[in-house]
Design goal:
By secondary structure, the protein is mainly beta. It is built from one helix and 43 strands.
Amino acid sequence: MLACVLLSEQIYCYGGGMYVAGRNVSTTLSDHYRLDISKNLHIPRTWSDWEVVNPGNTSFQLEPNMLFSTTVLNNNSYLIDGGLGYNNGTSLVNRTTVYHADTNVWESLPMNDTHQISMGSAVLLNKDIVWFWGGSDLSNDIPFVYPREFNVATKRWSSHINIGSVDNRSAWIQHTGSLSGNNRYIYYMGGVTVTNTTVINEDHPEEPIFNVTSTVNPMNRLLMLDTVQQNWTWMITNGPTPSPRKFHTVVQLPDSNNLLLYGGVATNGSLPVDDFCYILDTARARWTPVSLPVSRQAGPRYGHSAVLYSNRTLFIMFGVDELGYVRDDFFMMDLNTMTWSDYFVSMNSSSSNPHSSHSWNGRLSKGAITGIIMAIFALFGILATLLIFYLLHKKTQQEKEELRQSLGLEGGKAMDSEAHVSSQDHLTAPFKIYTASSPTIVNGSRTHHDLDEPLIEPVSGTLVKRSTISFDNGQSSSSRPSSLKPSSRTALTSSDDQPTSSDNTKSSLLPHPLRLRLP
């Protein structure tokens, strides 16, 4: 319903329609946009790269339009003819126009006649001749039967009444016309055949009654125009046949006899067809369905545009999707692999790696910058956490070493495997300190000590006197306490060799808080 064309590494899109709630008809648009594809692009992030193109000749009136016929003339210009225009009964001021991209100038061409044709097709036969056929006259909805020809060089119109149509009464609308690889045949497919039957008005013979009927065009019966012999023939295709459709696109694949069909809406419905992609081999008259990946794809749509680039890339642009929503996005198909891609590599780009840049316009988005800043802060937080853990671990090791030294332990030497006896030469015999991480043997019997509680027992079989465990608060006990808290500062003494002091100033052997497990 809109037109998108490729001119000198630029994609131009013009016109189209927009649904407005509460209205039964679409609002036509006069927007004209341009996308520079001379550089690499990340397709989902190209909206900032589109530019509004206002006419360079300010006196020209760029009018709203949709359902017009269009074709590229050369690398710098494209032609538009007819269409719905204002879609309110008002005729277009400039019925046939050419846009010249090199000068950004719109040119209004001479009118052929009083007919404003919509939903027809236009095909460039050679560099000078544009062939128009089909469509409906906006003034009376009567099908336009006869092919029209426009000479770009002389800017003159001519009608081919001698060719007419198949029965000289019918014409196709909402179809496509595509030139074959040898530039001789035009293949018309899809859409609807509209037939005009004239009935004599008995009351007013000078005012005939036009009876217009329509039938669906099947996709296994294509109409061919031989532009050399100037006659019509039918092509009956084989293979899996696409469902009937209208408002689809057909693109001639380079260096082959193949045409690629994409999208379309069911002729008896309002939603896109499910079987939306096929290839037609015109040499064998055979259809082949194309299975495309389901992840991130254009999917079923109609009223879109298809733009071919450099014989290997096809852009599917805008249109209406399977939910009936007008889409403002576009997708890129790799014709070599028949897959979708988010990354476009321009022929003019020096970089062959599409993933070498996060953004192909050379600018990072605000979201990307925010993400980078957050990642940097997160990295600093992780490093700070690791540093704190390292310092705490180092402090713990230092305190353990100091505790070993105060108890006379040899750093890093393993204890006795059964009783875990640590040599304590500084303690008055016959006492030793055990760590009760395993059963210990006292007086020839196995004794289970509470975990991590130091205990002084006599080495010999005779108990001289139990040690006294003193605490910082001055209390003492002749038996082991039920637990020793890590925050408590303790003193271990023997009542025979050292007097017990109520203030614990002389009997303390541990300068640091006692940990839960002695090393």
